[in-house]
């Protein structure tokens, strides 16, 4: 098990455990032009990080999905790109603030950003090991992580059920 998702091996499923995460983020709404929306959010987070207090690592961003009926419609689908902070003190009000409870997930890194290949590896590992996942009562879950000075893209499963 890797705590806080240090360096991840390429296309090898691992179980990652996060303690509670305090995140600030920028929502990207609607699937139309999602790539451009992600790039704008990434640039905004990277450029503002040098001026913000309490950023844990500006080179690591988490992608979150809310859970709810709006996610099934292309125009209201939401993706939130986030950075971890130690505290919300001094963070401008316009950032979305989310605190995620501790969680364990199956994670697969893919340097090429191949969402489908990484997702298939996550699903195969869950089936092979007989692991169950659930969003449970969580309003938001991590769907992916980007390490801009590390392995790149990593796909997350829903949290593992104990």
From TrEMBL:
It comes from Paenibacillus ehimensis. InterPro entries: AraC_E-bd, Cass2, Reg_factor_effector_dom_sf. Pfam families: Cass2. This is Effector binding domain-containing protein. It comes from the Bacteria. Residues 11-161 form the AraC effector-binding domain.
């Amino acid at each position: 098990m890797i705590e806080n998702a240090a360096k991840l091996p390429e296309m090898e499923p691992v179980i990652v455990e996060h303690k509670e995460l305090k995140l600030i983020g920028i929502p990207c709404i609607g699937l139309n032009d999602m790539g451009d929306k992600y790039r704008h959010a990434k640039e905004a987070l990277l450029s503002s990080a040098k001026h913000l207090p309490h950023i844990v690592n500006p080179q690591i961003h988490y992608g979150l999905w809310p859970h709810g009926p709006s996610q099934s419609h292309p125009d209201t689908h939401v993706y939130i790109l986030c950075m971890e902070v130690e505290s919300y003190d001094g963070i401008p009000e316009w950032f979305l603030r989310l605190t995620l409870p501790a969680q364990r997930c199956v994670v697969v890194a893919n340097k090429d950003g191949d969402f489908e290949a990484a997702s298939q590896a996550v699903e195969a590992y869950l089936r092979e090991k007989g692991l169950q996942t659930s969003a449970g009562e969580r309003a938001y879950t991590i769907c992916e992580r980007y390490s801009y000075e590390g392995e790149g893209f990593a796909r997350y499963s829903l949290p593992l059920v104990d």
